[in-house]
């Protein structure tokens, strides 16, 4: 659940691609998107004019090849509970990713979304 102090926001739009370097070149040359961040051959973030286009290689693709809006929330578990209560479904339970906690869900109309938030690193 979100509050006025911590509203959810679209952090990126995820596009699964078989070759991150080729996709970075394509979106840069065709649309002029600047590279914000590259994590080897597994992931890249491009500046798409106020929105981040996230390019995920097969080993980093959590959606099974489906483009999806990635929605950043303060509490992934609470957001998933609210999503299910409102008629959505969880496709892939929350898990620790390399940089965040993330889950994959569908809204009541079948649209895939990635729900992600801060890592929950255990102390010690």
Automatic annotation (TrEMBL):
InterPro entries: Anthracycline_SecMetBiosynth, Glyas_Bleomycin-R_OHBP_Dase, Glyas_Fos-R_dOase_dom, VOC_core. SUPFAM superfamilies: Glyoxalase/Bleomycin resistance protein/Dihydroxybiphenyl dioxygenase. PROSITE patterns: VOC (PS51819). Residues 9-118 form the VOC domain. This is VOC family protein.
